Amino acid sequence: MRRLLTLRGWEVIETETAERALEVLGDPAARIDVVLCDLNLPGISGSALCAQIVQVRPELTSRVILTSGDPSAAALASEGWPVLAKPFSLVELEMLVGTALVS
Hints:
This protein has helices spanning 2-7, 18-26, 46-56, 90-102, and strands at 35-38, 64-68, 83-85.
């Protein structure tokens, strides 16, 4: 994912934990356009992370994309967040990121 997005000209900030992601997102100088968030994270869940992202950076509410290999994750799409089901193609990834950028 990182390689494709970088090749398309997007800068990618990758974090290993949800806590680190919140640190990055909490920096007002950090320019974040889209958030890709896996739902299956160690510690804090991906859905809990997304709820915190909305509080910390409300402008990103419509630009969060969830990823998951769990079929039940599709229910979260009803909350307004697109869910990229694993396995997904790079074309699907690029399309969703592009769509999020114009929203």
